[in-house]
From TrEMBL:
Keywords linked to the UniProt accession: Hydrolase
Family: Belongs to the AB hydrolase superfamily. AB hydrolase 2 family.
Residue stretches making up the Phospholipase/carboxylesterase/thioesterase domain: 23-208
Domain of life assignment: Bacteria
Protein name: Phospholipase/carboxylesterase
One Pfam entry name: Abhydrolase_2
Length: 218
């Protein structure tokens, strides 16, 4: 099986050949690349395998996973294809690397957050959890996709209080939706625009360590 995406992988430097590792798959925002979100989760690189997945559509010197008809309105065919290919990528990486299938996470920003939440809803307990930074769930995912139970999936959602791309009200609506589907849901807002603040990063790192059962080294 070959990868459908280009990707950047960071393995712990003291890799134990007899061990499976918790793994974070990161998804970037529009116009960025597979290395972008490593800046958020890099401090976990000795405890987790970190795999940054590059969108396969060029955009403004970077990449995207799908195009938009308008803000908040993905091109459905491209979006569906991305979900299918990312699901296949999870299996590809699990077969190729020492990924613990019980501790697989997606972490995404903006377009990557949208995909991470949609993947949680379609993969269900095949994922341990997701981190969604400044995103939403498309209506067609909620109403037309075959949704899986996420009662055992851990969800961390955050949003900028002054987000000029997706208003913070979208973050509250998204969090409320997930709170009806899992009791393992955390929602936080930060006094930022469409980005990830140092406080946001700190909380994400702590949440991932705790959810994966890793003692903090911070």
């Amino acid at each position: 099986m070959s990868s459908l995406y280009s990707y950047d992988i960071h393995l712990p430097s003291q890799l134990d050949p007899n061990r499976k590792y918790p793994t974070i798959f990161t998804l970037h925002g529009k116009g960025s690349n597979e290395q972008d979100m490593f800046g958020v989760v890099g401090p976990l690189s000795e405890e987790f395998i970190i795999i940054g997945i590059r969108g396969d559509l060029p955009m403004s010197g970077g990449f995207q996973y799908y195009e938009l008809k308008s803000l908040g309105n993905p091109l459905r065919e491209q979006f569906d294809r991305s979900i299918e290919q990312l699901q296949a990528f999870v299996q590809y990486a699990t077969d190729k690397y020492p990924v613990d299938p019980e501790k697989r996470y997606f972490l995404g920003f903006s377009q990557g957050a949208i995909l991470s939440m949609s993947l949680a809803l379609t993969l269900g307990n095949q994922l341990k959890g997701i981190v969604a930074l400044n995103g939403y769930v498309p209506d067609f995912v909620k109403t037309e996709y075959a949704l899986q139970s996420i009662e055992d999936v851990s969800v961390f959602i955050s949003h900028g209080e002054y987000d000029s791309v997706f208003p913070v009200s979208i973050g509250h609506e998204t969090a409320a939706y997930f709170q009806t589907r899992t009791s393992h849901s955390t929602f936080k807002t930060y006094p930022t625009d469409h980005g990830v603040s140092p406080d946001n990063q700190r909380d994400v790192l702590q949440w991932l360590r705790e959810d994966a059962g890793i003692s903090s080294k911070m």
